[in-house]
């Protein structure tokens, strides 16, 4: 569905996307992870054919989006980072009017709108004003709207940002159902648990370059340990304790409020710490996550 080779985008002297290469087969759920300014949204805009690449090759469904943009976009669904629903229209009319942009027949669209509202669990809101919808409902309506033209590929830019946990889980369920129907999903997200739930494979991007590529499980095995032990000795003592942890676990990371001990057996690491006469104020053993991989690859510094 997507083949990118040496894909580059520059704005003057600034390089937003720096020669990245990747492929996405049909039916896959593919993620782009990275801090703010990493080049994720720029890459999405080039895939959608609304931003021209500076250099490199890009093919979407075998087509060049710069040359055959309308044909590419006819088979794409787009869920932007911010909902851009028409608030002057009712819920059902948002779907019908959007479908007319694709030249679809009104009779077809009325039936299609009902199907999509049922899929998005919004049938009882069909005649409601968009202003009256909750944030989660608006997000589901935006996703429903993106499906009007029965796209082969769906681009989702941070689809659940700002939603509460219940709304996020409902959206995950809807997106998983689309994947089961064979729709290719391309998504960016800041939620690592979301990437683990939805992505078959992903790339971690930082400063416009690919830092790592693989399935969530592969990346965790490659860049982290099976478990992570979090211990707290007090903000003023954590750094002083670290030298006494030598040899326990694979590596250590000192944060302002705690120490992370990366180990294959977190409980054994905690036992080894207490055997050395160290008694943390709090301790927690958890499995390694994609967030550990992400922070290992891109750092913990805040990027504005």
TrEMBL record:
InterPro entries, per the entry: AAA+_ATPase, ABC_transporter-like_ATP-bd, ABC_transporter-like_CS, ABC_transporter_ATP-binding, P-loop_NTPase
SMART domains assigned to the protein according to its UniProt record, in alphabetical order: AAA
Transmembrane segments: none
Principal location class: membrane
Signal peptide: none
Membrane-protein topology: Peripheral membrane protein
Keywords from the named record: Antibiotic resistance, ATP-binding, Nucleotide-binding, Transport
Family: Belongs to the ABC transporter superfamily.
Protein name: ATP-binding cassette domain-containing protein
Organism: Zhihengliuella alba
Source species taxonomy: Bacteria, Bacillati, Actinomycetota, Actinomycetes, Micrococcales
